[in-house]
UniProtKB/TrEMBL annotation:
Protein name: Reverse transcriptase (RNA-dependent DNA polymerase)
Superkingdom, natural source: Eukaryota
An annotated Gene Ontology molecular function: RNA-directed DNA polymerase activity
Residue spans of biased composition, Basic residues class: 1-17
Length: 34
């Protein structure tokens, strides 16, 4: 909750979103290969 009060919230959210996207692509790749 404190993280939401930080001034770099937008940057953090973008980074977190990018991580989720990359993880989703990795999971999708494993699902397709297997």
């Amino acid at each position: 909750q404190q993280a939401l009060r930080k001034p770099h919230t937008t940057k953090h959210l973008k980074l977190h979103h990018a991580v989720q996207c990359s993880e989703a692509q990795v999971q999708a790749g494993h699902t397709t290969s297997s």
